[in-house]
Every structure is written in structure tokens, then in C-alpha cells.
Write a structure and sequence with these properties.
Keywords: Membrane, Transmembrane, Transmembrane helix. With about 70 residues, the protein is mainly alpha-helical. The protein contains 2 helices and no strands. The chain has one domain. Helix 1 packs across helix 2.
Length: about 70
């Protein structure tokens, strides 16, 4: 598989569960488990996931550089 596509798929598999967990915690904390909490969860998640996915591609290169710097010191 092309490495370019592999990076996109790996990022997707990291972002989707993380944003789902964050959306769940946010909805549970702010609204509790009242009627319609599932709908609130899906609305929150569909707003979070695309933003996090796009943002991840800006953060990953900087995080890699920082990790390389830290690892090179040891």
C-alpha cells in the first residue's frame, strides 16, 4: 500500500475513537444521560472528528520532530 494513503488511514483510526471518547465525556459531563443524549453525542462527534482529522496532519510533523529531538538526547 502507498505510504501516503497508509498515513491517512492510520490517522483516521486514531482520530475517530479519540474524538468519540471525547464527545462522550463532553456530553455526559455537560448534559448527563437524559433523553436524546445519543443524538447529542452524534452531533458533537460529527463536528469534532473532521476538525481533529485535519488538525492532526498539521500537528503530527511537529510532534515527530519533537519526539526525534527528545529521543536523540538519550
Amino acid at each position: 500500500m502507498n505510504k501516503k494513503y497508509l498515513m491517512h488511514i492510520q490517522t483516521l483510526f486514531v482520530v475517530l475513537p479519540m474524538t468519540l471518547i471525547m464527545a462522550f465525556v463532553s456530553v455526559a459531563r455537560n448534559h448527563g444521560f437524559d433523553v436524546g443524549w445519543g443524538s447529542k453525542l452524534l452531533h458533537s462527534w460529527t463536528a469534532m472528528a473532521p476538525v481533529a482529522y485535519v488538525t492532526a496532519f498539521f500537528i503530527i510533523p511537529f510532534a515527530k520532530k519533537m519526539a526525534d529531538r527528545v529521543a536523540s538526547r538519550f
